[in-house]
C-alpha cells in the first residue's frame, strides 16, 4: 500500500505514526477527537457537474423565487425586511415556524447588511408570533445553507421557530450547565469560554468574542458570544457574525454551513440572566461530494474533526 499511502497522505510514515488529540469540556460534556489525517482521506462520489454555481443557477424557479405565492403566510401576516420576507413553513416543527426567504436566489450572496437584516426580520417575526400567543417565548433562528447542511430548497433562506415550555434542548442544556458553573465557580460560563479561548490564541474581540471552538461539533466550528443582556440585533454582534460567514466563504472555501442563534426567551424567565446571545456556525463540507460528513461517531460517540482551530482563527483575521 505504500505508493497509494504516499500519494494520498504524503508518506507511509504519516499513517504509521499519527497524532490524535481529544479535547473535553468537563462542564458541558462536549468533546472532540482531532484526527488531522482524516481531512486528507480520499472521498468517492463527487458530483458529476463539479460546478456548484451552475447547480445553484439551475434551481432558479424553485418555490422561494416567488415567496408570496410559494409559501403560506402566518395568521398575523408576513414581515418584510430590507432583503427578505417571511412565510410560514409548510412542514412546521413547532407551534410557530417561519422561513425567511432572501430576495437573492444564490444562498452564498450574503454580506453584513443581509446578516443584520436576517436578525432584525427574524426578531420582528418572533415578537409578532408572541403577541399572537404570549405563552410562546422560546425563539430560535437557524440557517441551513445548501443541501449538505439540510437545506431542502437551494434559494437563500433561513428559519425561525417559536415555542413554549422548556427552551430548545441544546440551549436548555447550556443554560443548566451555566447555572451549575455559576453556583460552583461563581463565574459566567460563556465569559470564561471566551476568556479561555483568548488565552490560547483561539479568539478575538472584546465586547463580542469570536472563537474557533476547541470542542467543535464538526469542522471549523466558530462561536460568536455577546454580553449578557445584549440584543442580538446590536450591530457589533451582527457584524461579528457576518465577518465569520464572509471569511469562511472567501478564505476557507466554506460553501455549506449551519448557523444557530441561541438567546434567552423573549419574556423574562428564571435562570437566564447570565446567558448572552451566542451564534454557532459550523462548516458542513463540500456540497458536491456525496458522502455525509456525519457518521455513527458524531451521532453516538464523539465527533471527529480534521481541521485545526488555529488555522480557523487565523483565517478569520
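Sequence proposed for the structure above (317 residues):
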Amino acid at each position: 500500500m505504500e505508493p497509494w499511502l504516499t500519494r494520498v497522505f504524503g508518506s507511509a510514515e504519516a499513517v504509521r505514526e499519527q497524532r490524535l488529540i481529544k479535547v473535553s469540556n468537563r462542564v458541558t460534556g462536549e468533546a472532540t477527537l482531532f484526527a488531522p489525517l482524516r481531512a486528507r482521506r480520499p472521498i468517492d462520489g463527487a458530483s458529476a457537474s463539479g460546478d456548484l454555481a451552475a447547480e445553484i443557477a439551475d434551481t432558479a424557479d424553485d418555490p422561494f423565487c416567488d415567496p408570496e405565492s410559494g409559501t403560506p403566510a402566518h395568521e398575523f401576516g408576513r414581515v418584510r425586511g430590507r432583503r427578505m420576507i417571511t412565510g410560514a413553513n409548510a412542514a412546521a416543527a413547532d407551534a410557530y415556524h417561519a422561513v425567511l426567504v432572501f430576495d437573492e436566489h444564490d444562498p452564498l450572496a450574503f454580506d453584513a447588511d443581509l446578516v443584520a437584516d436576517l436578525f432584525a426580520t427574524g426578531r420582528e417575526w418572533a415578537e409578532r408570533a408572541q403577541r399572537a400567543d404570549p405563552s410562546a417565548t422560546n425563539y430560535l433562528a437557524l440557517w441551513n445553507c445548501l443541501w449538505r447542511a439540510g437545506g431542502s430548497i437551494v434559494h437563500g433562506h433561513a428559519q425561525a421557530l417559536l415555542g413554549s415550555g422548556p427552551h430548545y434542548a441544546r440551549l436548555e442544556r447550556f443554560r443548566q450547565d451555566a447555572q451549575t458553573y455559576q453556583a460552583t465557580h461563581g463565574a459566567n460560563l460563556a465569559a470564561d469560554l471566551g476568556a479561555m479561548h483568548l488565552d490560547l490564541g483561539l479568539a478575538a474581540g472584546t465586547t463580542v468574542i469570536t472563537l474557533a471552538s476547541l470542542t467543535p461539533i464538526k469542522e471549523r466550528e466558530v462561536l460568536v458570544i455577546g454580553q449578557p443582556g445584549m440584543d442580538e440585533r446590536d450591530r457589533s454582534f451582527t457584524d461579528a457574525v457576518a465577518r465569520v460567514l464572509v471569511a469562511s466563504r472567501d478564505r476557507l472555501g466554506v460553501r455549506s454551513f449551519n448557523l444557530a442563534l441561541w438567546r434567552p426567551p423573549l419574556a423574562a424567565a428564571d435562570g437566564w440572566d447570565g446567558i448572552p446571545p451566542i451564534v454557532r456556525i459550523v462548516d458542513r463540507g463540500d456540497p458536491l461530494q456525496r458522502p455525509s460528513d456525519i457518521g455513527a461517531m458524531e451521532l453516538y460517540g464523539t465527533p471527529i474533526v480534521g481541521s485545526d482551530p488555529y488555522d480557523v482563527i487565523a483565517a478569520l483575521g
